[in-house]
Amino acid sequence: APTTSTTDDGYDLVVVANRLPVDHTVQPDGTTTWRRAPGGLVTAIAPLMEADEGAWVGWAGAADVEHEPFDASGIRCVPVTLSAGEVERYYEGFSNDTLWPLYHDVIAPPKYHRAWWDTYQEVNERFARAAADVAAPGGVVWVQDYQLQLVPAILRRLRPDLRIGFFNHIPFPPVELFAQLPWRSQVLEGLLGADVVGFQRTADAANFLRAVRRLTARTTRRHHVVVPDADGGTREVRAGAFPISIDASSFDALARTPEVQARAREIRHELGDPEVIMLGVDRLDYTKGIRHRIKAFGELVEDGTVDVSSVTLVQVASPSRENVGAYMQLREEVEGLVGRINGEVADFGHTAVHYMHHSYPAEEMAALCCAADVMLVTSLRDGMNLVAKEYVAARSDESGVLVLSEFTGAADELARGALLCNPHDIDGLKATMMRAASMPRREMRTRMRRLRKQVLENDVALWSRTFLDVVRGTSTHADTSLEE
Ligand code: G6P
């Protein structure tokens, strides 16, 4: 039975995320349309919203544009407007130049600017008010990710009747790093406005609970934090691990279509029918270990371990956060490295590294996954990594090898089927890549079967149901490994 209503009272389920699940596109004739946006979060929640007719509060992705609420692909969209200055200070600044590097092990140095923090607070307040305006009495509001960590507490102040869940899609850092943040206690208090604070891994939830114990006056009991409520009593905030996934059966079905299969053969042919195709697919982000992967491949070619006429690396890097300095610098480094390797080793008709700075539709991604013998996921730190799961879902032929960094959330679930690697250890990475390239068929099949069972049985529908059941209090299921 539907669990939400769309009466004048508001929506029983409201998702609040930095981005709306649709992109605004202007056609050549000047008319505008909304198209389903790519990306992990959208893939994760859109099916649920379509089924339940919930509302989604988010930013349309351009500065200074105001839109009325609208319906798109079965979802009620409630746009939040950001000015150009707010995009700079809240989105590019505090979210992606302070929190993003801090939460990813300070791979790039986080910047701490008071003006960015002020804007982060103002924008979080705006998102919270928009959600408060559309949520039904006693409804559930599900707040997503690091851009909106203050929303739970603001929302609770505005609407104490709501059940509030927060899910952090990225890692939560160890308290030794989190403690750098000048506004660390405000961020923790913001999150503690929720009834449930969800993380990708048990280790992230444990980091959060340690930060709460160390940096606030709150006490914790196993995976609960005790906080004062509005009537002078106390309430409990639950922290737990809810590893996100993909719509696995849809991706599996897409990859099996004759069109995608034909395109996979075509890609192989266009690459010169090499014996082994290695693939990397990432947003162009310094957390993904793209340089480490290309460096390892370049050395394998240069030291003669692999021959570019038989082994090819395809790297798809989708443009991301292009106004942030660390991303501009990364792009230069990656493109310089690719150019250097190709310049040294390429030959007429053979290129060592095929590098594409584009994003592609799901069909092309599925075809690339089907064409690739080895998928390289070498993140230095990654909340989950859904590309790893997409590769597995696409391999209904039960072949192909997933090389997976230990520093991804996915490694917690996929360790028994993937070849794990430490991307900082270039020699180790090279050895793992070679082991993947020459893995015997039997071992490949055993491993891929394990991976497929895990991914197909734990899809995103199960993830969202599990999380929402805990928020609604109809289930207490969550990772219990924090209880000891
Ligand atoms: C990560 C984050 C998301 C974010 C996405 C794309 O997956 O966890 O919150 O939406 O990257 O980044 P962007 O800055 O383009 O929204």
Characterization of this structure:
With 484 residues, the protein is of the alpha/beta class. The chain is 43% helix and 21% strand. It contains 17 helices and 18 strands. The chain has helices at residues 40-52, 84-103, 114-134, 151-158, 175-178, 184-191, 202-215, 248-256, 258-270, 290-302, 325-345, 362-371, 386-394, 410-414, 426-437, 441-457, 460-472; strands spanning 11-19, 22-26, 32-36, 55-59, 70-72, 75-80, 135-144, 163-167, 196-199, 219-221, 224-228, 234-241, 276-283, 311-318, 353-356, 374-377, 401-405, 419-421. The chain has a ten-stranded mixed sheet, sandwiched between helices. Helix 11 links the parallel strand 14 (311-318) and strand 15. The longest helix has 21 residues, at 114-134. It starts with 10 loop residues before the first strand and ends in a 12-residue tail after the last helix. Residues 1-6 and 480-484 have low confidence and may be disordered. The structure holds 6-O-phosphono-alpha-D-glucopyranose. Residues 18-19, 39-41, 145, 169-170, 320-321 line the site of 6-O-phosphono-alpha-D-glucopyranose (G6P). Residues 18-19, 39-41, 145, 169-170, 320-321 line the site of 6-O-phosphono-alpha-D-glucopyranose. This is Trehalose-6-phosphate synthase. Belongs to the glycosyltransferase 20 family. InterPro entries: Glyco_trans_20 (IPR001830).
Widest sheet: strand order?
Answer: 5-6-4-1-7-8-9-12-11-10
> Can you count the beta strands?
18
Give the averaged pLDDT, no decimals.
93
What oligomeric state do these chains adopt? single chain
Radius of gyration: 23 Å
Q: What are the bound molecules? A: 6-O-phosphono-alpha-D-glucopyranose
Helix/strand class: alpha/beta
Helix amount: 40-55%
N-end to C-end Cα span: 37 Å
| Biggest sheet record | 10 strands, mixed
Uncertain stretches of 5 or more adjacent residues: 1-6, 480-484
Report the total helices.
17
User: How does the overall form come out from the CA principal axes?
Assistant: globular
Strand content range: 15-25%
Family: Belongs to the glycosyltransferase 20 family.
InterPro entries: Glyco_trans_20
Pfam families: Glyco_transf_20
Protein name: Trehalose-6-phosphate synthase
